[in-house]
Design a protein that fits this description.
single chain; alpha/beta; 4-stranded parallel sheet
Length: 152
């Protein structure tokens, strides 16, 4: 089982779509290269990306991203989403949610499923960039630990 992350989980780092007209109150904090490096640092094996994660939407850039991901042994998936402002979200992972734990147990038992992507939806302070980025990173690291417990 391979574990990855949806870029929305690091939304306040500036690597995910601005949902419902939200404007990030500080400059982007991470580019696609740093994002892939961070996935390796936290022990993830892939990314579920949307347009905002890319610096360019041209073929040459996609090729460089693909090659870098392969060198890092990361899988990439592209998010084809509903229009901005319409979002279905689940419960945060690792917060004691028994339904989410049961869902991951069932996924783990299904041999046809070989990847899971984490997506966090967090409330972060918009007047304190360092705190918001720390909250996102800590929640992601907690979710990775939780998922590893379930899928290993």
């Amino acid at each position: 089982m391979r574990l990855g992350m949806h870029t929305y989980s690091l939304y306040h780092h500036g690597v995910a779509e601005d949902w419902a007209g939200f404007q990030l109150p500080w400059p982007r904090q991470m580019d696609i290269w740093r994002l892939m490096d961070y996935m390796v640092e936290v022990g993830l094996e892939g990314l579920h990306l949307d347009d905002t994660a890319f610096d360019s939407m041209d073929t040459a850039h996609f090729s460089r991203v693909r090659d870098y991901a392969r060198a890092q042994n990361l899988y990439l998936e592209y998010n084809f989403a509903l229009p901005s402002g319409f979002k279905l979200t689940g419960a945060p992972i690792g917060e004691g949610d028994l339904d989410m734990r049961r869902a991951y147990e069932l996924i783990h038992q299904n041999p046809d499923i070989n990847r899971i992507n984490i997506e966090l939806d967090l409330q972060c302070p918009l007047d304190n960039m360092k705190k918001a980025l720390r909250i996102e990173r800590e929640a992601l690291q907690k979710s990775v630990r939780f998922c590893r417990e379930i899928i290993t």
